[in-house]
Amino acid sequence: ALPDTSSGWRLYQPSIEDALQKRIRLHEALRIALDNQQFFLVYQPKIDLRSGRVIGAEALLRWVHPELGFISPVDFIPMAEASGEILRIGDWVIDRAIRQLEEWLAAHQVAADFHLAVNVSVQQLTQPDFARSLLHRLLRSRLPAGALEVEVTESGLMENVDLAREQLQLLSRHRVSVAIDDFGTGHSSLAYLKTLPVSVLKIDRAFVSSMDTDPQDQRLAETVIDMARNFDCTTVAEGVEKPEQAQMLIDMGCEVAQGYWYSPPLKVEQFIEFCAERRLE
Ligand code: C2E
Ligand code: CA
Ligand code: CA
Ligand code: CA
């Protein structure tokens, strides 16, 4: 006879239904979030490790729903990717980032060589028109070449290397730089990496956060930095939370860092304040 699981099932069923209901509600909410202006961008400073200067920022998407409150991109980005909604949302992110950067440069609130990075999902990158449409918007904006960077995760990139490469080549020919995000987590093959026009490798937070306590993670970070040097790439360490980590990164030759030690992602006003204060130091 089957074990009696009926009581457990009865206890369990409502919570499965609740979770399902919640997901459906969230999907529905996500579908109309863009049209209802519920998204905004926050900006995390990127610091040149040697000079301490703010040399750029990463734009990160935020969603605050009027009833559900703050919803993390860790939760809603995968939903948007699964539903295809990421294409419209991703377009909005690029437009918003371009307009923000134009504003900052026009008002001299950031340095002339400042660059802004946007995260791009693999679903966006493998649209045949992705690069052309981005470049079209960039050229229309009159931003200096090289002011915009795209961050693509290593795992996303490896999902469809051939399609991704075509798009990235077009971008890099027009001096939009390409960063590989979460580098070291996606088992990408070096043979493939060699064929991609990448100019930045971002060391994943997982390695950085345990670097000062775990010698193995320290060696991994070191390996990424050495590899970046061989590929003529800049290394950016993400998730730097302690001065010891920053010092280790400097000693290893890492060039750029982001993380709570310097600043969390900031709303526009605070970001500009941060830049102004840093310039006076
Ligand atoms: P990511 O691209 O790896 O972004 C870095 C994440 O680490 C951000 O989380 C950032 O707030 C967080 N972070 C920064 N410094 C520290 C630190 O010192 N310690 C810790 N613990 N965390 C730190 P966030 O903003 O929640 O974003 C999560 C992920 O959502 C991003 O990971 C990215 O994959 C995705 N995402 C965010 N915005 C967008 C977007 O506009 N488009 C797409 N496609 N994905 C996005
Ligand atoms: Ca990123
Ligand atoms: Ca990352
Ligand atoms: Ca990450």
Q: What letter string, H or E per element, gives the SSE order? A: HEEEHHEHHEHHEHEHHEHEH
Ligands, deduplicated: ligand C2E, calcium ion
- Fraction of helical residues: 40-55%
Shape: globular
- Total strands: 9
Summarize this, please?
By secondary structure, this protein is an alpha/beta fold. Helix content is 52%, strand content 19%. An eight-stranded mixed β-barrel has the order 1-2-4-5-6-7-8-9, surrounded by four helices.
Structure description:
- This protein is α/β, with parallel strands linked by helices and 281 residues long.
- β6 (177-183), α8 and β7 (200-203) form a beta-alpha-beta unit.
- The model has no long low-confidence stretch (mean pLDDT 92).
- The protein is globular.
- The protein has helices at residues 6-33, 73-83, 86-106, 122-125, 130-141, 154-159, 161-173, 190-194, 205-210, 215-230, 243-252, 268-280, and strands spanning 39-48, 54-65, 69-71, 115-119, 148-153, 177-183, 200-203, 234-237, 256-257.
- It has 12 helices and 9 strands.
- Strands 1-2-4-5-6-7-8-9 form an 8-stranded mixed β-barrel, surrounded by 4 helices.
- Helices cover 52% and strands 19% of the residues.
- It starts with 5 loop residues before the first helix and ends with a helix.
- The chain binds ligand C2E and calcium ion (3 copies).
- Ligand C2E binds at residues 44, 60-61, 72-74, 77, 90, 93, 119-121, 181-182, 205, 238-241, 258-260, 265.
- It comes from Geopseudomonas sagittaria.
